[in-house]
Amino acid sequence: MATLTTGQAFPNFDLPSDDGHRVTNAQLEGKPFVAFFYPKDDTSGCTLEALDFTALSKDFAAAGVPVYGVSPDPIEKHCRFRDKHGLQVPLLADTEHALLQAAGVWVEKSMYGKTYMGVERTTVLVDAKGQVHRVWPKVKVDGHAQIVLDEARKLAGVAA
Predict the structure, then answer these.
(1) Annotated catalytic, 46?
(2) Cβ count within 10 A of residue 6
(3) Helix 144-156 to helix 44-55 angle, to the nearest 10 degrees?
(4) Helix (H) or strand (E) holding 116
(5) What does the alpha-carbon distance between residue 33 and residue 66 come to, in Å, rounded to a whole number?
(6) In a domain, 18, yes or no
(7) Are 136 and 123 spatial neighbours (Cβ–Cβ below 8 Å)?
(8) Selected catalytic residue, list 15, 23, 46, 89
(9) What residues make up the domain containing 145?
(10) Residue 3 located in a structural domain
(11) Which of 9, 47, 78, 136 could form a disulfide with 123 if both were Cys (CB 3.0 to 4.6 A apart)?
């Protein structure tokens, strides 16, 4: 499936979180949220991205826009990643790649001449109706979380 586009319904999901609960799109109905899809726990880019969203987590909460990190890593690995770096954003485990595929971010990648399947770093801002408000494909981490926060505040009608 192609990457999500603005105005499209965000895919249904039901995924375990590092806090021991499950998170579903039905639970999030009526409020906007952010899903940042990242390749792998405890790698340099993914760590920086998770730390940046953590640094702004209170600002996202004040805007009423929860943030969720989503990767194919299992919960146990998410918990180690969270604890090692003091992360404050829930991490969802999509070990079956259901949401990753539905969002179009589980793609063929290539490194050193070898191809493999993996996550294309992408962030999605979903509105209160469950529709995609904005997509940031092929994310460059530096400054990205602040850009997402600024857009989330606009969507939520909250001043900076």
Answers:
(1) yes
(2) 12
(3) 40
(4) strand 114-119
(5) 5
(6) no
(7) yes
(8) 46
(9) 29-156
(10) no
(11) 136
Query: Could you tell me which residues come within 8 angstroms of residue 28 by beta carbon, excluding any fewer than 6 positions away?
Result: 66, 126, 130
Give which of 143, 144, 94 is closest to 119, Cα–Cα. 94
Q: For the domain that residue 79 is a member of, what is the CATH number?
A: 3.40.30.10
Is position 10 within any domain?
no
Q: Check: CB of residue 51 under 8 Å from CB of residue 59.
A: no
Q: What is the rounded CA–CA span in Å between residue 37 and residue 71? A: 6
Say which amino acid occupies 136.
W
Please give the model's pTM, rounded to 2 decimal places. 0.95
Q: Phi and psi (nearest 5°) for 80? A: -65, -45
Phi, psi of 17 (to 5 degrees): -110, 160
Give Cα separations from 108 to 101, 117, 119, 127, 155 (angstroms). 11, 4, 8, 29, 32
Query: How many domains in the chain?
Result: 1
pLDDT < 70 stretches in the chain? 1-2
| Per-residue model confidence (pLDDT) at position 111 | 86
